[in-house]
Write a structure and sequence with these properties.
With 198 residues, the protein is of the alpha/beta class. It has six helices and nine strands. Helix 3 runs parallel beside helix 4 and helix 4 packs parallel to helix 5.
């Protein structure tokens, strides 16, 4: 049985993307205001041996704080946490982040499924999961876990994605998900989710 959040103020947002991720994230994250009331945890498939400049690239365009996640740091609203290259990112039951070097999932570390499933366990129905463009099926199982826990599931419309395999797999695995364009997803994240906290 999945734990229920202690308070509606513990809402959170998880995002997964692969091929085409940078452009997709730059359509969504800059629209979020500096006082955004939710934390955002993000997995992007990155080459394992490279230093990622993704956090600094996004931070330069965003009003919310953007950083690479650190092991055991508490989750804070108005901050986007990126999984570092070659580490799984998880949410612990006490709403701290943890990094893992467990085996890759669907050839990916970080894995979208690992983040989404751990976040669904921690946040229950107060979680929103978003699957964006990508060329494999990572994230489909995780989005289904978000939906099963009572959370909101959003997927980029495959026709609008640079790589359609990931959104297609997510929609197949999670029929309850809403298929939206990037501007529509941005609008839901910016306006609809914060309204739930009021």
């Amino acid at each position: 049985m999945k734990p229920e959040p202690a308070s509606k103020d513990l809402q959170a947002l998880v995002i997964g993307a692969s091929a085409g991720a940078v452009e997709a994230l730059l359509c969504i994250l800059p629209s979020l205001p500096a006082n955004y009331p939710l934390p955002v945890m993000i997995v992007v498939h990155l080459p394992p041996q490279s230093d990622s400049i993704l956090a600094s690239l996004l931070a330069s365009r965003c009003q919310i704080k953007v950083k690479e996640a650190e092991d055991k740091e508490p989750v804070c609203p108005g901050t986007a946490y990126l999984a570092p290259p070659n580490y799984h990112l998880l949410v612990e039951p006490d709403f701290r982040l943890s990094l893992s070097v467990d085996d890759p999932v669907l050839y990916s570390r970080p894995s979208i499924d690992v983040l989404f499933e751990s976040a669904a366990d921690a946040y229950g129905n107060a979680l929103t999961g978003v699957i964006l463009t990508g060329a494999n099926s990572d994230g489909a199982r995780g989005l289904r876990a978000v939906s099963k826990a009572g959370g909101l599931a959003l997927v980029q419309t495959p026709a609008s994605a640079e790589a359609s395999a990931m959104p297609k797999a997510a929609l197949d695995a999670c029929p309850a998900a809403r298929a939206l364009t990037l501007p529509q997803i941005a609008e839901v994240l910016k306006t609809e989710l914060p309204r739930r906290l009021r």
